[in-house]
# Entry
Amino acid sequence: MGHLNNRRVLLAVCGGIAAYKSAELVRRLQDLGAEVRVLMTRGAQEFITPLTLQALSGHAVHHSLLDEEAERGMGHIELARWADLLLIAPTTADALARLVAGRADDLLGAVALATPAPKLLAPAMNQQMWKDPATQGNVTTLENRGIHFVGPAAGEQACGDVGPGRMEEPEFIARAAAALFATGLLAGQQVLITAGPTREPLDPVRYISNHSSGRMGYALAQAAVDAGARVTLVSGPVTLTAPERVTVRPVTTAQEMLDACLEHSKTTDIFISCAAVADYRPIEIASQKIKKHDAELSLSLVRNPDILATVSRSTPRPYCVGFAAETQDLRDHALGKLQSKNLDMIVGNDVSDPRIGFNSDENAALLLWADGERAVERCSKHTLAQIIVEEIARRRTS
Ligand code: PMT
# Structure
């Protein structure tokens, strides 16, 4: 069964009698592991109070396009970037028409335009309104734009009519949301991913490391599992829980990470090197805690092996994807690493911006391969991970 672990679902509730089911829907989404935030149209607030949805989701409900609470007064952009999925339930006939027109004069319309996340709509309306050619035309237009639908179900309606137009049951909608992330793009493939930092000990209590949280690598593991792959995650020390169905190999140092990778790389179809591996380690590890005698202390360091370059030189060689963490000249430096490490693809990310890169929930990237590139604007690491997995699947078969 699908799940929504680590997924951020923005549930948009429109003004229809089915809005009462949205409270239950919040719970069912959470049961599948999602973090849920709620957006309500003005009409929705006539049917159910924001307080109910606030209490269930654990977050303030969003309803205004001009949001003074938002970091930069642009709540719609922040929400649009936050979401891994925009779920509109119930979707009224009016909301469908507004989405077709691309209206941006309310929060839902603006978020729908601004988000790169997939959209899932659960229509609910009178059966005659649903059957009307205008509504059916709108549904076709939205489907052609890649928007997903769940329902409506047929049966007795609140207005007394019988026919198609009832919002699907919350559990069914939550499962449909989870199924969207199960792409099958890497079905049967063996994927090896490194994540997190390495730690290079100086003495029994100190080490050299960096700020990698592991979030990007763990999001990749989730995206690869969702795409049907068998995933081994070689992880440096992080505080994250691994996604379900992922085999984790915890390691500490770069040498241990290399050893673990070489153990698996021969049976791997795709290698994604997302770990922030320490480039150097102390030549010697002091057996006792180093004492502070002098005003200055010099450390002698030696280069660590390059795990990615080693795997990419090995035979049989998996499809190799590297990351480039850069603070300047992102494109040039990433291209240099693509070539020097003999990679199939590299994901360049600017780690000078504290909102993205190391130890943040979001990232932005420039994906590069021998004869092409794709820029991905700031989005959640889960969304970026999905895009990387899609691009890997596309490049490997093209
Ligand atoms: O973990 P998060 O907090 O979510 O942060 C994500 C991230 C910023 C760590 C991630 O997006 C990222 O950029 N990872 C690569 C970090 C890095 O070490 O970049 P680099 O440009 O120094 O290395 C280039 C590539 O070589 C990387 O794929 C790296 O994994 C690999 N490498 C580097 C050195 C080494 N000794 N062995 C390697 O395999």
Observations:
- The chain has two domains: 8-179, 190-285+296-397.
- The first strand starts at residue 8 and ends at 13.
- Residues 196, 212-217, 254, 273-277, 279, 304, 306-308, 322-325, 337, 349, 351, 357-359 surround PMT (CB under 6 Å).
- Residues 3 and 32 are 5 Å apart (CA to CA).
